[in-house]
Each structure stands twice: as structure tokens, then as C-alpha cells.
ATP-dependent Clp protease adapter protein ClpS
Amino acid sequence: MAQKDEHDGSVATETVPKQKLKRPTLYKVLLHNDNYTTREFVVAVLREVFHKSESDAVQIMLHVHYNGVGVAGVYTFEIAETKLKTVEAAARDNGFPLRLSMEPEEG
């Protein structure tokens, strides 16, 4: 806050230390393989909800299929949670048991 010096009319300023802003924790949204959800549905949600290209969506879907789990995307907590709930609702509405989870990104 600026204060007026009574003697010579100049203004003295107080230096406030800068606060370091902490980056928000990022979360991975994970897709889990099952034997019922179609590959086409998984590719569709990767494209529509996670905004992946066709080739990236197919690559992620195949990774999930062969490895059991894969990363759909990495987001702040609120966005990751919203995407997870959106996909779970779409899967449920289409009769699929697709399971998703979130975990903090390391590093």
C-alpha cells in the first residue's frame, strides 16, 4: 500500500512478496476393459467426450483391450470427474458395463 511521506511529498511503496502459484493436481481418466462393451462404443466416447482423433481413439481402445486398462486423458479434478460421469452415464444408457476410474498423475 502506498503511503505519502510527510516531509517531501514523495510516495513510499511497500514491496509485497510474490506468491508462488501451485499448479493444480492433474488426474488420469482410466478406461477398464470388459468383455461386453463394444469397441465401437469405446471409440465413440473417446472421440466425443475426450475429443480424440479417430486414429488416437482406436489406438487407445486397442491398448485398453490388450492391456486391461488405458488412459483416456489427463485433466484437472473437476474436468476428469465430469468426463468420467458423462461416459459412465452414456455407457449405462446404452446397456454397457464400461468402467472408468481416476487417479492422480505422478510427476
User: Anything to note?
Assistant: The CA atoms of residues 1 and 15 lie 9 Å apart. DSSP finds three helices and five strands in the chain.
